[in-house]
Each structure stands twice: as structure tokens, then as C-alpha cells.
């Protein structure tokens, strides 16, 4: 496969049409940081699983999908008691019994998993993944993924540290891999890692058949987003020379990590240029001689793009990108056959977040028609002028013109 060049063109108004399709999802509350989508209850319809909202009732919620875009929140008591808080969620068959299990990365609490029980409830997982009270764990996360990291056929959990917390002696940094072994869960040893953030993407970055990671980082001047697995075990932190100096990157998204040896991923950035802040989104394309960076959008000011999602929005077979910033504004980048990405704004999505920061986005077919829907989470502290609702969960139907 030959890598294509991506070039941002002037924004235009045309593009796919979007309609709200999310009856039953909450329109208030701080829904951060991430969610997952899967047929959890086995009824053939996609469900949405989310951890507790920030400053809300501290219990995860399973929003059961009806297959037509509607959702029904699960009843209380679905999960065993645990010191939950907001964070991220992942759905996967962790114990190999054919049922979907649920895992959570919990702010200041660690990482845990709940195995699906025979009656539709969820039981605490095996020893090695335990939640603790805030401040009692040396690692916690708000961004993780479920994947077979070590290639043994069992689903592991890969998490990025959320960073230091006020009053805590623990740094909570770097990539953490929790291996799902026959003997139980065990955290794999890794290099000293100072990155921390709220976003990561997995895929084979070097073409050796092993899963690697691209991580966001809130450390200024961090130019090492890659975590590359090594044949002898463990992984290596790898610098990407084409990343902007004097910058940090709030979010990442895989755009073609699993389809070929020539990889693409998107990365949002905030850069200190001289004495001024700039922000935007870049696309990185793997070529035979290294990585090429293409600027998709750049704007003055430190306005963070906190959520990125990739997929085919308009049904033309080319990869598109969705970006949501810290004021809830949604920008589309539509791919075309000539290898360009065109920045577009959509009136329906322009203020979808109502001033609340974007926290997570996914493109996924939730109504079974073969085309993806756009699902988004928003959350901010209400400040009197923006984000009065605190946030929301939303699903949008994409209509092709």
C-alpha cells in the first residue's frame, strides 16, 4: 500500500447531514472521560457503558440500546459495590466464557473489571484488579483500552496514567499494561515513563505483528508518543521527531492502525510559539523513510481539542475525522479520493456541546443499518456563562446527501 498525502483545504458548508438519535441518554451531568459500545446483554443491539458522571451518583451505568437509537438506563444494583468514580470504560470478554465483561479505569481509584454473571449482573473480577479509596493506589487512569497486548489470545487492559493529584505522593504517570494471565491479573513491567493524559490508541506501529500504543501527553516538550513492544518483552518509549517542539498533545486517534503496515494517526496539539499559544490537529502518516506530519488545522490560542474519532462519516470509503474542542464545538475533516482532508463545519453539530468540553467520541453503527452513528460525551464545570447543564451524552444519525 502506498501512503497518501493529506492536505487541509478551506472549510466549506457541504457535507453529511446529522440528526439527533439518542432518546434515553442523559442531557445533564459531567460525563467524562470515556465510554465503550458493545452488545453487553446479548439481545443483538449495541449498548453504551459509562462510568459514573463526575459529581454524580458513583455507580457505572449501562445504557441498553433498543436498536433504533433509543437507550434505557440499567436499574440500580447491576454492579457489586466498589469505590467508583468517573474515568473510562471498556467492554470485552475477559474470561473467555462468551459473555461481555466490563472494565473501568477509575479516577484516583485504579483499574478494575467486573465479570458478567449468569443473571445479567456483574461480579468483581479476580485478584489483581482492585479499586481502592482515593490516594491509596500508585497508578490510576482515565483512559484505557481492552486488547490482546501480548498475543496469548486473552484480552488485557492497557491504561495511560492520569497524572499527579493534589496532596498525593503518587505520580500516576506512564503506560500500564495489566496482563490477563491464566494465574490471574498481573501488571507488566515497563520503562520509567513520565507521560500522562486522557487519550491513547492501540495498533501495530512498526509492522512486527505486536500491539503498540500511541499516547497523549500533557507534558510540555514531550515528543515521545510511541510505546513500542519488543520481542524480548516489555516496551520502549520512542520519540517522534516530527512532533512540534514546545507543545503538548491532549488527544490521539488511530486512523489506520490495523489495516496496513503504513500507519496513520491524528493528534491534537497546543503549542507555545514564541510568547503566543497556538492549537490545532495534525495527521501523521507512516512512510518508508519515516513519519510525515500534515497540519489539518491551526488556530491562535490554547483551545484544546480533547476528543478525536476516525471513521467513514459520509460513506464514500475514505477515512474521515471528528474533532471536539474544550468548548464543545465539533469540526469534521472529510477524506477524499485524491488524498486530501477537507475541514468542514456542520450547523447542527456546531454547538452540540452547549459550551461543555468534548470528552470522548466514537463512530459506531448502533441501529444496524451498516452505517456509523456519531456518539459523543461532554463535561465541564458550569461557570454561569457556559455549560449550564454540566454535560451530556449524545448520539447523532449521519444522513448521506
- What structural category arises from helix and sheet content? mainly beta
Q: Gyration radius, to the nearest Å? A: 20 Å
For the biggest β-sheet, the strand order reads: 1-27-26-25-24
| Tally of DSSP helical segments | 0
Which band does the percent of strand residues land in?
A: 35-45%
Low-pLDDT stretches are 1-13
pLDDT averaged over residues: 89
**Form type:** globular
Q: What composes the largest sheet?
A: 5 strands, mixed
Helix content: under 10%
Secondary structure tally: strands: 30
In N-to-C order, the SSE pattern is: EEEEEEEEEEEEEEEEEEEEEEEEEEEEEE
The end-to-end distance, rounded to whole angstroms, is 30 Å
Highlighted features:
401 residues, globular, 5-stranded antiparallel β-sheet, 30 strands, mainly beta, 0% helix
Provide a quick synopsis of the model.
With 401 residues, the chain is an all-beta fold. It has no helices and 30 strands.
Describe the structure in your own words.
The chain is 0% helix and 43% strand. The chain has no helices and 30 strands. It has strands at residues 8-12, 17-20, 35-38, 47-50, 61-65, 71-73, 87-92, 101-106, 110-116, 122-124, 141-147, 156-161, 175-181, 184-187, 200-203, 212-215, 226-229, 235-238, 247-248, 252-254, 264-273, 276-287, 290-300, 305-311, 320-325, 330-335, 341-344, 358-364, 373-379, 391-399. Strand 17 and strand 18 form a beta hairpin. Mean pLDDT is 89; it is low at 1-13.
Amino acid at each position: 500500500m502506498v501512503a497518501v498525502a493529506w492536505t487541509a483545504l478551506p472549510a466549506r458548508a457541504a457535507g453529511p447531514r446529522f440528526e439527533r438519535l439518542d432518546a434515553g441518554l442523559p442531557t445533564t451531568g459531567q460525563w467524562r472521560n470515556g465510554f465503550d459500545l458493545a452488545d453487553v446483554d446479548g439481545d443483538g443491539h449495541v449498548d453504551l457503558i459509562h462510568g459514573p458522571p463526575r459529581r454524580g451518583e458513583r455507580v457505572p451505568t449501562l445504557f441498553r440500546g433498543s436498536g433504533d437509537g433509543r437507550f434505557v438506563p440499567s436499574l440500580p444494583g447491576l454492579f457489586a459495590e466498589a469505590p467508583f468514580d468517573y474515568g473510562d470504560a471498556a467492554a470485552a470478554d475477559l474470561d473467555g466464557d462468551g459473555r461481555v465483561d466490563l472494565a473501568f479505569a477509575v479516577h484516583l481509584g485504579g483499574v478494575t473489571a467486573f465479570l458478567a454473571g449468569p443473571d445479567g449482573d456483574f461480579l468483581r473480577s479476580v485478584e489483581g484488579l482492585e479499586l481502592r479509596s482515593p490516594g491509596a493506589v500508585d497508578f490510576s487512569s482515565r483512559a484505557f483500552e481492552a486488547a490482546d497486548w501480548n498475543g496469548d489470545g486473552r484480552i488485557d487492559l492497557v491504561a495511560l496514567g492520569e497524572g499527579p493529584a493534589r496532596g498525593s505522593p503518587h505520580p500516576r504517570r506512564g503506560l500500564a499494561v495489566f496482563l490477563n494471565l491464566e494465574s490471574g491479573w498481573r501488571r507488566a513491567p515497563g520503562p520509567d515513563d513520565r507521560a500522562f493524559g486522557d487519550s491513547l490508541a492501540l495498533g501495530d506501529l512498526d509492522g512486527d505483528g505486536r500491539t503498540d500504543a500511541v499516547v497523549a501527553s500533557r507534558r510540555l516538550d514531550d515528543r515521545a508518543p510511541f510505546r513500542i513492544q519488543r520481542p524480548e518483552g516489555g516496551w520502549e518509549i520512542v520519540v517522534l521527531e516530527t512532533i512540534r517542539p514546545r507543545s503538548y498533545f491532549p488527544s490521539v486517534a488511530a486512523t489506520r492502525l490495523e489495516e496496513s503496515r503504513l500507519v496513520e494517526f491524528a493528534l491534537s496539539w497546543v503549542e507555545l510559539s514564541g510568547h503566543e499559544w497556538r492549537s490545532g490537529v495534525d495527521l501523521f502518516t507512516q512512510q518508508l523513510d519515516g513519519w510525515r506530519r500534515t497540519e489539518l488545522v491551526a488556530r491562535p490560542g490554547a483551545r484544546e481539542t480533547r476528543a478525536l474519532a476516525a471513521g467513514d462519516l459520509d460513506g464514500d470509503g475514505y477515512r474521515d475525522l471528528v474533532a471536539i474542542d474544550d468548548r464543545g464545538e465539533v469540526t469534521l475533516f472529510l477524506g477524499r479520493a485524491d488524498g486530501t482532508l477537507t475541514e468542514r463545519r456542520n450547523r447542527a453539530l456546531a454547538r452540540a456541546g452547549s459550551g461543555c468540553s468534548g470528552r470522548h467520541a466514537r463512530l459506531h453503527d448502533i441501529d444496524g443499518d451498516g452505517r456509523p452513528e456519531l456518539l459523543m460525551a461532554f463535561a465541564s464545570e458550569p461557570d454561569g456563562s457556559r455549560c449550564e447543564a454540566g454535560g451530556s451524552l449524545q448520539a447523532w444519525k449521519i444522513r448521506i446527501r
